[in-house]
Design goal:
The complex is a heterodimer. Chain A is an alpha+beta fold. Chain A has 9 helices and 8 strands. Chain A has a two-stranded antiparallel ribbon. Chain A has a two-stranded antiparallel sheet with strand order 2-3. In chain A, helix 2 packs across helix 3 and helix 2 runs antiparallel to helix 4. The termini of chain A are far apart. Chain B is of the alpha/beta class. Chain B has 2 domains: 361 residues, 3-Layer(aba) Sandwich (Rossmann fold); 66 residues, no CATH class. Helix content of chain B is 28%, strand content 20%. Chain B is built from 14 helices and 17 strands. In chain B, the strands form 4 sheets. Chain B has a 6-stranded mixed sheet. In chain B, strands 2-8-7-4 form a 4-stranded antiparallel sheet, with no helix packed on it. In chain B, helix 5 crosses helix 8. Classes of the chains: A alpha+beta, B alpha/beta. The interface between A and B is medium-sized, with 15 and 21 residues.
Chain lengths: 269, 440
Amino acid sequence: MELEILIAVATMGGLGFIFAGALAVADKKLRVEENPLIAQVNEVLPGANCGGCGYAGCYDFSVNVVAGKTPVTGCPVGGQDTAIDVATLMGIDASTSVRMLPRILCCGDNEEAVKKMTSYYGPLSCSAMAQISGGDKLCLYGCLGGADCVVACPFDAMVMNEHGLPEVIDELCTGCGMCVKACPRNIIEMHPEDREVFVFCKNHDDPKTSKNVCHVSCMGCGICARKSDGGVVMDNYLAVIDYEKFDETKIPFDKCSTKVIRKQNFSKN
Amino acid sequence: MFSLSKHKTFRGGVHPPEYKHPSKDKPFEIMPLPKRIIVPLSQHLGKPALSLVKKGSEVKTGSVIAEAQGVVSSPIHSPVTGKVTAVTTTVNTSGFPKESIIIEPSEIEEFDFLPTLNCETISAEEIIERVRLAGIVGQGGAAFPASVKLSPPKDKKIDYIILNGCECEPYLTRDYRYMLEQPEAVLAGLQLIMKATGVDKGIVGIEDNKPLAIESMKKAAKTFNNISVEAVETKYPQGAEKMLIKALNGREVPPGKLPLDSGIIVQNIGTAVSIYVAVVKGEPSITAALTITGNGIKESKNLIVRVGTPIDEVLNYCGGVTNDAIKVVVGGPMMGVSQYDFSAPVMKATSGILVLTKQEVAEKPETPCLRCGKCVEACPVNLIPTKLARYSQLGKIEEAEALDIRVCMECGTCAYTCPANIPLVQWIRLGKKKVMEKVK
């Protein structure tokens, strides 16, 4: 009886030793050298493997961050804290890098943009509306109001305001840029946090057309461009700010008839 | 799908109310010249034509005002005699602003047509060249330059020409009127197409809800022993090329291939008439035949108008719109484009203008998918619309591509049949676009 137990233990134990030995050899011989940074980055991630970053789990995200294929701010769940941790590991100084925030460069809300005489009926998504000639608004360059950017934002940092335009809640925004990608009309741009003056329009129509499609469009008069010494350039009836040469004091804010060139915190009333 | 019709057809499809009665007994009428003509430079599939005129240029009816750019393109001829007032961008029936030539017609009309040719002695090359010079595009909807379709690659053997007289879109009666009024011209056009491609068998396929057209065409076709007229079941989208081929020849055109890969070329009734007119009268593509109908128009009509006539002038000529009209659609109700700017012009391939009232436009609220599978049953190209639409909505492009989203021809059968009113075809279109962008 005791012998049988001994045989069983010896057999199983022996097998265990053999396989352990094989594994030990395999570990040495078949080892794939991996950047230790990947494990370190993986360590500071939330570890939820949610896939919110677009990769198959946190480890895959770490691999891509270390390979430089995705930005250190790419983890939507970890937010700013994780981004700083990852940036520190990657040797990027997160504290001195300028915080980028999305800016919505259209002010043609439900009151100011001129509506078509017919109403849109179909999927309520900007990308679907952009495939045909847009939704209810006549302007072919402005915000469609379908909230694709709000849906795309993983941090609830975007909301549609009561006038039908999206708004960024700066405190919640991590600058991931998902809203920029989601907008089919390309009216959302990333700008440094402290930048204040923008042209809140993307309309390239000629003066007469742009006046007909929206009350607050850049009509292309060019007065800001003429006074600004190259700080503002005209691109096919649209004023575009060249932030390299831009000097705020030279911009004739009062002369702009539709007030599309103005400061971010400017209030309509 | 269970069917009572004894005529040939394809699998799937739907049968919407036909609603052809308001215009089907109205003979073609020629509309007088409008006050203003807007000629878009892109009236065909392919590269837009290049304008040859400037503001102030004097043009004659039929003279070339824009030349074709490359092979898949088409020249554009002045539809009227008059003066060019501007070359600018205006909204056309696609809803997007496109470069157009604006002409103010003068009172006296001078013609600058191509020389006339003899149908009997003309050679195949001459026919193709004439179709190209006359700027004829397919009248079935896609506006593909007809000359390109008539010159298939040498290694493809074509054995049938099908003339598409289905007109499966509800409301429209343009092809029907052509078959009733000018069956000889339709068949002469078919003969020219057959000669140009060197094919000796022609079939005219007509839906069985048009018995008079079938009779008229059969009578006219008696003199030709190489043309047969066949009835097919009345079902949408019977007039789609691949569906018609399946019904008439039993051949299946593989996904991503063209009908000519299966040895067949399909042309529309209207295209055949245009080709005939271009050869015997030398008249380039300067007119469009179209049906103006719907409950929202005072008087339904079948009209022949000059290309470039603004929609609002066409509507006024038909007595204007009624007070309860809420929607204007260019094309058929299934695949047409809803309009918001009525100064948009009639183009070469415009087949109809519908003015619809609230009762005719089913704007019902969308509800969740019931998983009933009606769309799957109805899809003529055997796709799973409900899955494709959902994938497209969620941005899952790889998954949509794996389910062959690109095979969809956007006929709208799925959205029509959906009891939950989900805009299936709209979502699928979006998904298709994203897949194409990714492929690029």
